[in-house]
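Chapter summary example.
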Amino acid sequence: MGFNCGIVGLPNVGKSTIFNALTSAGAQAENFAFCTIEPNIGIASVPDPRLNRLAQISKSEKILPTTLEVVDIAGLVAGASSGEGLGNKFLGHIRQVDAVAHVVRCFNDTDVVHVSGKVDPLDDLETISAELLIADLDTLEKRIVKTAREKKTGDKNIKLALERYEGLKEKIEGGVPARLAMDESGGAEFFRDLFLLTAKPALYVCNVDEESMLSGNSEHLRAVEEYAEKNGGKVVSICGKVEAELSELDSDDRAEMLADYGLEEPGLNRFIRTGYETLGLYTYLTTGPKETRAWTVPAGAKAPQAAGVIHSDFERGFIRAEVISFDDLDRLGSELAVKEAGLLRVEGKEYVIKDGDVIHFRFNV
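The structure predicted for these 365 residues follows.
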């Protein structure tokens, strides 16, 4: 499944540095605005320690984590919605992603220029938000004009649609992102075909300095957390500089550097997991002697849909799913022990997948 997360922000806040550390893609990252012009696309593996445990139990030959596509989008400036900077191209790239990670600079460094001449993450977020809201208003206004013409037919459904569009427009004009306003104005499904930018799930990434990374305390970080709570989104803080260094080390040196900092894992692991959660995704697992593998499904997916992620034949010929909880398998140490404890479940077509399910599908085509 092609789930992706776009990384956006003002120029020179560390987007490409974070992207490179995430994906080892080698995207250009320089100390000047609009270093990124065309979007860079890379794949980030989703860290999941459950895979190592399952591979140990099954004596698997290989481990295949699930992945998330990451898109590094060109830096935004005020006026983008009217064509400033890379304006329309930037906004077009955002329309193509499933979720948006807003990177904001939360560190001071005189050697790294800031496009507005000062470090103020809230001001940065307001700039980005304003451009996305203006673009959404333009989309809504065009739809309202079109629907108003159709209203002359007297169709009650068209009249209701026009009321919903106008209601959402009023909320967006008040600065409320579509992801918070749509439910009150008719439901997210009704507005889906508008592809509104502020309807996308949001993640706020604070690029902090080493001191703030270690203490977890930063005035800038607290301000972003308050902003995220108000605007509907999760927050994760990482030190792009440290993550870039970690990404270039082998596993042993990386572990040593993390230990020196007193960290259990790279901050990018939190970023990936939080991005995964922001997209509303679950992981189910398959395991055996050949491989242990993670698979991605949207929250609420039923067993046949999950089977189809492996192969369309699995969904088309679905018979049943044999399901074990990872926690039970971890605790008991083998599939046989789980079966003997009566903890293996046989589920049908209406079963809703849970995160961490270990599944074997039965099918016939």
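To summarize the output: Confidence is low (pLDDT under 50) at residues 25-36, 83-87.
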